[in-house]
Amino acid sequence: MTVAYKLALARQAAMFANHLGMLDGYRFLRACLVKSQVAILMYHRVVPQRDIWFLPYSITVSDFENQLKYLIKQYTILSLDELVDHIYEQKPLPKKAVVITLDDGYKDNYRYAYPILKKYGVPATIFLATGYIDNGELFWWDKITYIVQHTMLQALELGHVGSYSLGSNHEQLKTASTLVRRLAELPEQKRNMLIEEIAVMSAVNIPAGLGKELIVSWDEVREMSHDGITIGAHSVTHRTLATVLPKQARYEIIQSKKTIEERIEQAVTAFSYPGGRFSNDTTSLLKDIGFRCALTSVPRMTTSESNPYELGRLVAGWTFYVFKAFLCGLYPDLHTLASRMNRIWLSQE
Question: Which of 77, 166, 262, 272 is the most buried (most CB within 10 A)?
Fold first, then answer.
């Protein structure tokens, strides 16, 4: 079963459950059985329309605004700082609350998400990978997407990485998404070499400075930081910190914090783990240099007893019904149950 098929199945199941009232019913029942929990929502790109850059973690501007309208009516929207205060002070959490976060620092966060957040007075935290700001560089996954979009080839034959059709916009989007997912599992050096090989094979030259069109500038970061948006650190080069040498991880964490603080003249106390992965050494370093919290990509809800350096988040960039399935706690609960069952099976082998 392909990832695309699983996603389509999840969307259909969520829509069916919503029409039957199951999502609202599950949320009500859950609220009666467990103590108050907060959903930290994770966004990435907010774009005008679905196009080649529209990968699974993207959301359209209209969908983003509709989700915010729903949250404003149905939930208490906390800032990340407010949630962390509740955890450290062991204060009861609101019955229905959410936190808004955006990762990576794309320019569309400034162009589209920021005006909508400002319009409704919604607090949010944007996490920046500082090494990509104002230097024109692209994230590796955006290089893949650009190559797929601009090649004249009708197909890609990549050996053990797979064969891909590129004949239509739909096939290009599917190919880009699949390649990004598969290459994410490779070691950094091998992945970078493969991207270069794909670019040569595809006869595509990525323009120098293209990153400036996609990534937020420091002037834009300063404007947002002085107008209600909290800025957090997301490393320098978006390396997975759990897999690099301790010296490299230390540089990624300390330098990203230092650079942002120098640029916006405000303290940076929140960190988002690149790729959602971390180690005990990583969390210890974050504590030592003054971070109050760190966010993962593990799909779980947050309570007043949660470890502030291992806060889970829920992906928000899918259909509205999947969005509701995450919010009501159904998906996080299923993920937790599956993880526990897997551990039990492994322990019995």
Answer: 272
Segment 103-149, tens digit of pLDDT: 999 999 999 999 999 999 999 999 999 999 999 999 999 999 999 98
Using CB atoms within 10 Å of the CB of residue 92, give its burial: 0 to 12 exposed, 13 to 18 middle, 19+ buried.
exposed
Alpha-carbon span 149 to 204, nearest angstrom = 10
Residue 88 domain boundaries? 37-129+218-318
- The pTM score is 0.87
The span from the CA of 59 to the CA of 48, in Å, is 9
**CB neighbours of 196 closer than 8 A, spacing ≥ 6?**
none
Kindly state the tokens that stand for 191: 């992945």
Q: Are residues 196 and 55 in the same domain?
A: no
Mean pLDDT of the chain: 86
In sequence order, what are the residues at sequence separation of 6 or more whose Cβ sits closer than 8 angstroms to the Cβ of residue 168?
none
CB atoms within 10 A of CB 210: 15
Q: Dump pLDDT digits (tens) for 288-345.
A: 999 999 999 998 899 999 999 999 999 886 677 778 777 776 666 666 666 665 555 6
Spatial CA neighbour of 46 closest among 38, 55, 37? 55
What's the rounded Cα separation, in Å, for the pair 254 and 328? Answer: 36
Let me know whether 82 and 164 are in one domain. no
Q: How far apart are CA 184 and CA 309, in angstroms?
A: 24
- The tokens for 313 are 């988040």
The count of other CB atoms within 10 Å of the CB of residue 191 is 17
Taking alpha carbons only, the member of 343, 299, 309, 335 closest to residue 37 is: 299
> CA 106, 193, 211: angle at the middle one, nearest 5?
20
Q: What is the pLDDT of residues 246-295, one digit of tens each?
A: 899 999 999 999 999 999 999 999 999 998 888 888 999 999 999 999 99
